[in-house]
Amino acid sequence: MDPEEYVEEVLAVVERIPPGRAMSYGAIADYLSDRSGRASARLVGAIMARHGGSVPWHRVVAANGRVVPGHEKEALARLVGEATPMRNDRVDLSRAAWWPE
C-alpha cells in the first residue's frame, strides 16, 4: 500500500466509527497493519492532523481516551452530544471502543 492509499484507508476507517464510539490512533494503525505493513499510531495522528477535517476526527483519541490536543472543547462537545461514554473529560474506551468488522 503506497502512502496515499494508506491516508485514504485511515480516513475510511474513521468515517466508519459510529456516533457514541471511538478508536485510538494505535487501534487504527493495528487494524490496518496487516494490509499496509505499517503499525504507527504517530503516523495515524499525523494523517488525522493533515487530512482529518472531513471525517469525524473527534472519534479518534489517544490510547488513554484523551481527545485531540488543541481542539479539546470542540471534541468534548461533539462526543458528549453523541452520548459517548466519558470519564473525567476522556473517552471511556472500556465502554466506547469500536473495532471495524
Automatic annotation (TrEMBL):
A GO molecular-function annotation: catalytic activity
Coiled coil stretches, renumbered: none
Family matches, as CDD domains: ATase (cd06445)
Residue span(s) of domain Methylated-DNA-[protein]-cysteine S-methyltransferase DNA binding: 8-70
Source species, domain of life: Bacteria
Entry keyword annotation includes Transport: no
Gene Ontology biological-process entries: DNA repair
Annotated keywords: DNA damage
Record protein name field: O(6)-alkylguanine repair protein YbaZ
Organism in which the protein naturally occurs: Asanoa ishikariensis
